[in-house]
Amino acid sequence: MRLKRDFILDLISDIVGSALYAAGVYSFASKAGFAPGGISGLSLIIHTLWGFPIGTVSLILNIPLILLSYRIIGRRFLQKTVRTILINTLFLDLIFPLLPCYEGSSMLAALFYGVCMGSGLAIIYMRGSSTGGTDFLTMSIKLLRPHLSIGAVTMSIDLVVILLGWPVFGNVDSVLYGLIATFVASTVIDKIMYGTEAGKLAIIITTAGEEVARGIDRSCARGSTLILAKGSYTQMDRQVLLCACSKSEAYKVRHAAYAADPQAFVMITETNTVFGEGFIDPTDNVKIG
To answer: Model pTM?
Structure first.
């Protein structure tokens, strides 16, 4: 029963995600004169040069990437991805060519490409699949470097393809529109998958933990975790504060730390989500905002 339900959910996600993906590529990007990046961008470049079907070209380009990344991504992920690729090819080559394309502002086309593509990919990713192509490389890098965000990895890979579109479309605008489209898509992926509260984790090493914690609370009403620690080399007592905050609050947290202790060591790292305002721990050595 569970397997049947998972299969149905996977299939629905493939259909919805592939429809959004195809809308971004065919309805908005194909007539706008830019390559958005990834395999879809390469397929658009080949389609522009020689007129080959976008979906079929994408399917062919996937074969060597599948062979290169098979051992890393695993059999189950590959099986789900192959199904997604086939459904995606169906939408790209048979369904969306029957629908009208947007032929207005290239800027609007880039923005709506990003929204459609990002939403479609996020839906597919969340069910443990992908549309293949550079997604194989993205997922492989994500497995090897789990601290990296999917959106950031995707953006880096796509930059290469975007630059290839410059000589094909004959103007620098194609690069600019491709960058905008890819940035929007990457942002949408991260916001859907990681939530709008995705933010930062501040790690502060100081000798004035209580003062730093109060400063952070005053500046952005954010609680923090205070841990007593000892340096393994210096054997000196230190206090470590952990403060989960939104991206917009990261500067305030850093400023509050240095205001209380100019000698503090402050490191801001990426986190996936930020919840709550802190809580009280009854232990003697750990005080949580």
So the answer is: 0.71
